[in-house]
Every structure is written in C-alpha cells, then in structure tokens.
Structures
1.
Amino acid sequence: MKSDLLEQTAVSTAEVDDQCISIPSPFQMRQNLPLDENGQATVARARTEIGDILQGKDSERLLILCGPCSIDNVNSALVYAERFARLAEEVLDKALLVMRTYFEKPRSVVGWKGLLYDPMTEGERSPAAGIALARRLLARLTGSGVSCATEFLNPLLAPYLEDCMSYGSIGARTVESQIHRELASRLEMPIGLKNGMDGGLSSAVNAVRSAQSSHSFYSQDLHGCPALVSTQGNNGAHVILRGGSNGPNFDSKSVSNAVDAGRLLGLSRGVVVDCSHGNSGKDHRKQASVAMEVLRQKVAGQDGIAGIMLESNLVAGQQSANAGPRVFGQSITDACIGWKDTECLVRELAASL
Ligand SMILES: O=C[C@H](O)[C@H](O)COP(=O)(O)O
Ligand SMILES: C=C(OP(=O)(O)O)C(=O)O
C-alpha cells in the first residue's frame, strides 16, 4: 500500500515538473515595470473619488465603468484610451469615467481566457509575457491619467496588477467562492460583487458582507511564498446588478431591493448596474436603453445608484478570435457598443444628470 502511494506520488511529481513553467514573482514584475508618479497618483485619486461616490460624499456624479469586454490588443486599447480620456475630461463634472481593462475572462465552458494567459491569441504558451504586456499597458494608461478597472479572477494573478487598478470586480461565476470573497476583503480599492448567474441578489449581498469582514486566509506574499494573510475587510465592497438566467434586474424594484440591502450593510449608494451581460441578454444594442432606464430611476430620486457599467469598444459587435484577419478594435469576447454610440450615450447621460 505504502509503496503504491509513493509510486503514484513520484509519477505525479514528475508530471507536474514537466508541466510547470516558472514565472517572475509579483515583486519582480512590479520592480521591472513600475508605475510612474503620475500613474500612482491616478490610481490613488480614482480610488478615493470612487469611494466618495459610493459613500454618498460625492452625490453629484455617476460612476461609469466603461470599456472593452476584454483587452486582446494593446494598440486598440491605447487608441480607445486616448478617446476615453478626452470624453472623461469633457463630462468630469457629471460623471467619473473608469476604463474597463479586463485581462482575464471567466469562461462558461472553454474559450480564450484573456491576455494574461494568451497574449497573442495563439495558444497559452507564454503567460508571463501576457502579465508584462498588461503591466506595460496599465503603466501607460495610468501615467496618462486614465484610471482602470478589472475583474479579479485568479487570486494568484491579482498581486501582479492590483497596484494599477482603481476599481475591481468579482464576477458572477466566482461571487460565491470564499477564496474570491477573501481576496475582495484584502484589495485596497472599491470592489463590486456581481449577482450570481441566476440573477438572484443574495449571492452578491452575502459576498459584500463577507468582503466587508476581516479574514485570515492562505495565500502568497509578493515574492510568491505561501503566506497566511490577514485582512481588515473592504469598506468599498458593493453590489453590481448584472441580471442572469432568470432575466434582467435593472428594473426599479430590483434596484431598490439591492439599494435597501446595501443600506442594511452601511452603504448609502451601494449599487452599480451592469448594462451588459444578463441585463442586455448579451445584445450590445440594448445597453443604451438599460443605461437610460437606470438614469431615469436616478433622476426620479433613486439615490442609491452609484454607477453603471458598459461594454464598449472602438467597433460595435463581436468577432471570432480564430476566423482569419481581425477587425481592429472589435471584441473577441462579448459584443460591445462601438465608440460613436459610447460617446453619444455618455454625453446624453451626463447632460441628463
Ligand atoms: O464577459 C464576458 C463573458 O460573458 C464571460 O467571459 C463568459 O463568456 P462565455 O459564456 O462566452 O464563456
Ligand atoms: C465576465 C463579466 O461579467 P459577469 O461576471 O457578469 O459575467 C465581465 O464583466 O466581463
């Protein structure tokens, strides 16, 4: 019995060794690709400003999390960011624009898992190159004043990018995971916790409660060594309504239920509405009407709404990642609204506030 076990262990260790590629630690990556002073200031300022919106200290402005479903091409992300920065400046008094820079994608089954895994979209062969590319892009964006948001999916990857992010989310597929709730409680930025895949509110509310709490949990330090981490809890944890298999949840009753649940947890403006995903039935053309309905509720007096999320890219729609030459600036994951429509929508939202 004992020798069998040893034999099996020896075999599996050999397999693991064959299948492992060492990558630099988060500490090394941060040292090699640091944020400059402007970048650090952008991150810090946006974290505070988002926190002020969530706590109701800034009751004037709407948080707008807007950008590609996923970053698959850094050049198109740079072009997008340039336009985004101009728009953000234009609507500054009415809205705080934070760019979606999503480098990991949770898949319903399988598919491209994001730039961190497969930076050239040609197979998962050089993941560390993806991390370095993402950091380079984030250093450029934050250095030029664009604040960034992402979904934190693999907890081991968070330390590679979290210092560049002003806002984070935990997605519908992982919001019930204790490991992700612990991560959310550690992260030093506002974190939106999405409702689960069925569209029910309770998974998000339970996740907010957990993320607000202190935890001790097993993780790694910045050098990649196993570590027991202690957290104080995240007071910027809040709900993102994204709809689900039971239908959308951006109607006034669903929003007010979420606002009330948030208030019981001490959040005065604790709700962000994702206008895409389950709230648009993944039809990008519906995002604008979802956003306008949320705005209507806000203008009618629903002051618990902190913000909205939009999936937007240079070119509207979606294309396959593997079907020949690609359209520059069009999503290879979920369909997005195009830049012209994004600009019109954000201007319209700002004008109505
Ligand atoms: O936001 C992106 C997608 O909705 C998510 O990654 C799931 O995509 P999939 O259902 O195509 O795998
Ligand atoms: C995957 C995402 O969202 P959700 O978790 O709501 O599906 C996303 O926002 O990219």
2.
Amino acid sequence: MVHHGPRPLVICGPSGSGKSTLLQRLFAEFPHKFGFSVSHTTRSPRPGEVDGKHYHFTTKEAMTEAIARGEFIESAEFSQNIYGTSKAAVHAVLSEGKVCVLDIDMQGVKKVKQLDMNPLYIFIMPPSVEELESRLRERGTETAESLQRRLDAAREEIEYGECYYKVGCINWLCICPLHHCFLFL
Ligand SMILES: Nc1ncnc2c1ncn2[C@@H]1O[C@H](COP(=O)(O)OP(=O)(O)OP(=O)(O)O)[C@@H](O)[C@H]1O
C-alpha cells in the first residue's frame, strides 16, 4: 500500500496497558487531526462497544474469507480471536486527511513493518504484569482462561517492547498520569 499524507501512528502494548483510554483522550482532544483505523475482530462486543466505531465485529468465517480475498493489510490471532486492519479502514481515515492511528498487537506491528506505510511506532509499557492483571480483573471482561492468555501474550509483548522501542516521552501522556504508563517512541 503506497502511503501519501501524514505518517500513520501505530500504537502497541499489552492488553490492559491503557492504549484504548489514551487514544480516546487523543481523539477527544484532536478530533480533526487524528482518525482511528477501525479494526475487524471476531471477538464478541463488550458492553458499550459500538460496531463500526470501536471495531467491526464479524465472524471467523467472514473474516477468513475477506483475508483470503486480500482485503486486509494485516491480521493476527490474539487470545483465540482474529483481529485485522482492512485496507478500507485505513483509506477511510486517509481520505479525511487525518493521521491514521492503528491500535494493533505485536504480530500486527511485525506485519506492518513489512509494508511501505512508514508509520511512527509507539509502545505503551505497563508498570508490571501484576498491575496489568489487576486492571484486567477489575475490568471484568475476561474469563479465567482468557485472562491467562492475555497475560501470557503480555509477557511476550513487554519483552518485544523492551527490545525494539527506544525510551521516550511525549507531552500528551502528561495529561494522563493515572495510567502510570510510559510511552516509547
Ligand atoms: N487489527 C489488529 N491487528 C492486530 N492486533 C489488533 C488489531 N486490532 C486490535 N488488536 C489488538 O488485539 C489486542 C486485544 O484487543 P482487545 O480490544 O480485545 O483487548 P483490550 O484489552 O481492550 O486492548 P486495549 O489494550 O486496547 O485495551 C490488543 O492488543 C489490540 O491492540
């Protein structure tokens, strides 16, 4: 995919690190500047999640077929569900002249790195796996098994973040100290 316009932003970090919350703040503060690449997922919607806004909720069958038709720039299996970024989702943001923001996992990042999108990469590092666990428990969206799967994935993602991202800090994090997370640019 040849990319024109402002460089996309790829945000990555373990489930529960606070990516979604930080992005909500970003979009609320700069609605004309940044646009969200709405991923497809086969996981069930959580209370409050809106189809087409937070995710395009779909089935494994429909998504596998769409991937085979070449409709996705990347896809990944995370905690027994498929997630993916469609070409249409990215085009929708770019056509509005906004910075396209992708919230994707480590596998998605590795795939995007093989494309010619040339994005900026940001990793949200949680304070510890213990803190992640208590956040995910409090959120109440996971079963014992899916919580364990997310924590196993988190350990791998933290290692990946430590290896491949340089320590940095950007200003809009300062308005969100409650999340106790660091941004790596
Ligand atoms: N298109 C995609 N490709 C790869 N990974 C994706 C994609 N869309 C979402 N993900 C990742 O899948 C993981 C699980 O997302 P999900 O929304 O189920 O959990 P979450 O705990 O709410 O994530 P968050 O950390 O954003 O709060 C997250 O790390 C998210 O970044």
